[in-house]
Amino acid sequence: MTVTEAAAERLIRIGEVARGAGVSVRAVRYYEQQGLLVAERSPSGQRLYRPDAIPLVRFFQQMFAAGLNSRRITELLPCWDSGHTDAEQRAMLRAERDRIQAKADDLQAALDRLDELIAVTDTHP
Amino acid sequence: MTVTEAAAERLIRIGEVARGAGVSVRAVRYYEQQGLLVAERSPSGQRLYRPDAIPLVRFFQQMFAAGLNSRRITELLPCWDSGHTDAEQRAMLRAERDRIQAKADDLQAALDRLDELIAVTDTHP
DNA sequence: CTAAAACCTGACGTTGGCGTCAGGGGCAAG
DNA sequence: CTTGCCCCTGACGCCAACGTCAGGTTTTAG
User: Fold this and answer.
1) Region of residue A35 (left: phi > 0; alpha: psi -120 to 50; beta: else)
2) Is B64 on the interface with A (CB under 8 A)?
3) A121 and B59 in contact by Cβ < 8 A?
4) Residue B58 near residue A113, CB atoms below 8 Å
5) Are B73 and B60 in contact (CB under 8 A)?
6) What residues contact B109, with CB distance under 8 A and at least 6 apart?
7) Spatial contact of B67 and B103, defined as CB atoms under 8 Å apart
8) Per-residue model confidence as pLDDT tens digits over B3-52
9) What are phi and psi of A78, to 5 degrees?
10) A22, A37, B23, B49: which could form a disulfide with B53 (CB 3.0–4.6 Å)?
11) Are B104 and A102 contacting, i.e. CB atoms less than 8 angstroms apart?
């Protein structure tokens, strides 16, 4: 087994990425289109990913769930990849963090509201 | 002042509802269209609301923020209004509550992720 | 070898909560 | 009177993250 083959063996196709991350194949293609994900190509044109594409896609999902859009995520990706940031990026990180915190607070308020309603409707059937 | 006049004095127009709840006039009309909100009409056709439309609209916003859509909210409105529910509605309330809780957990995970990233980029400038 | 499974590139469809424009009306202040 | 503010009804526009269909190639299992 050559070094090249050993390296090639670490590449997976889009279906495996999708299954591994729990998203659709279409979603993975979409991420590439948005510049979130880069893939090599096999001679026949199929996308080939390194295995760490899976946790990366999970990270995307997490950020999407937190309300960030593709563009924001691409802007944050350099920090994620390199651990290296300029002041502007650090400010953006904190801004997003605060937005998510506020959103979490809103959710908690909604939760309290519903719990209150549940308590009333349970004692008041 | 007659009783009727006293009652009429308690009715406000759409602009006041919108300002009071911090949403657009368009949004309030939309809520009516979705069956979330009912309004009386003045002889000239203007919508007239009781003042408690304002907290009600705030409640809608809170539920929207929690990821419920108009239809779900209309389904939950009877509980909210009357405090009376059947088994199906109580199940729905709990299901939504659990969904929101899961969402809150996701947000917290995203927050932890970002905080971790912030810590790294701060010590690693 | 062959059939099924997986992959490819477009490109249009969906969903929801509004924004926004078009065109028109009423009504109190100056 | 007219100016300006608020209100009305449609109806099209928008955005974002995909779903989905069409029509064709590649890879894999038996």
Assistant:
1) left
2) no
3) no
4) no
5) yes
6) A62
7) yes
8) 444 444 589 999 999 999 999 999 999 999 999 999 999 999 999 999 99
9) -55, -40
10) B49
11) no
Nucleotide with the nearest C1' to A28 CA: D18
Give mean pLDDT, residues B91-96: 92
The answer to whether B85 and B59 have CB atoms below 8 angstroms apart is: no
| B45 CB contact with strand D at below 7 Å | yes
Decide if A65 and B110 are in contact by the 8 Å CB cutoff.
Answer: yes
| Contact between A25 and A15 (Cβ < 8 Å) | yes
Residue A40 phi, psi dihedral angles, 5° rounding: -80, 170
3-class DSSP state of B46: coil
- Whether residue B62 and residue A113 make contact (CB cut-off 8 A), yes or no, is yes
- The confidence score (pLDDT) of residue A101 equals 96
- Any CB–CB contact under 8 A between A69 and chain B? no
* Residue B125: per-residue pLDDT: 67
In chain C, which nucleotides are within 7 Å of a protein Cβ? 6-9, 15-20, 26-27
Alpha-carbon distances of A109 from A38, B59, B82, rounded to whole Å: 39, 10, 21
